[in-house]
Amino acid sequence: MVAHPGPATAELLPEIRAGIIEQARREYPNEACGLIVGSGLAAGGGRPLRFVPTRNAAGSPYRYEIDSGELFTVTFEADANDEEVWGIVHSHTHTPAQPSPTDISLAFYPDALYVLVSLGASEADAGTGEPGIRAWRIVAGEVFEVALIG
Question: Beta-strand (E) ranges in 12-131?
Fold first, then answer.
């Protein structure tokens, strides 16, 4: 078994969590997607600063594709502000907030966290009833969960 590449935990600010859930509900029945911009790479200990919703160019309930123009704009602006893409976000409409085989095969940012939100009733937070959100590092096809705090 490969060792966890870290981080083991990451803080997810309440306003970022709320924005992710809001967009997932708004885009339903299709998968929603977006980017979390941070002070640095998640793998290097950067902190999340803000969530930027993006258009799902696939327009599908089964997969997501961040609009390439929006990806360029967010990445360019982050770079200009000495920031990084900290996380890549998308929703699963009925399945758990875990990377699917398709998600794993299309994970091209190994230093970012893949943040998934599930709208499935069985995935709701037991305490709040809010959709479940989980984070993952996907490195060379290996998947490692990162516990979210906050």
Answer: 33-38, 48-54, 84-92, 113-118
Quick check: pTM over 0.85? yes
51: nearest Cα among 76, 29, 21: 21
- DSSP bridge partners of 145: 136
Provide the token pair at 139: 């490195």
Cβ atoms of 68 and 60 closer than 8 Å: no
Q: Which of 27-41, 80-94, 113-127 has the lowest mean pLDDT?
A: 113-127
Distance CA 12, CA 49 (A): 9
Fold of 9-149: Cytidine Deaminase; domain 2 (3.40.140)
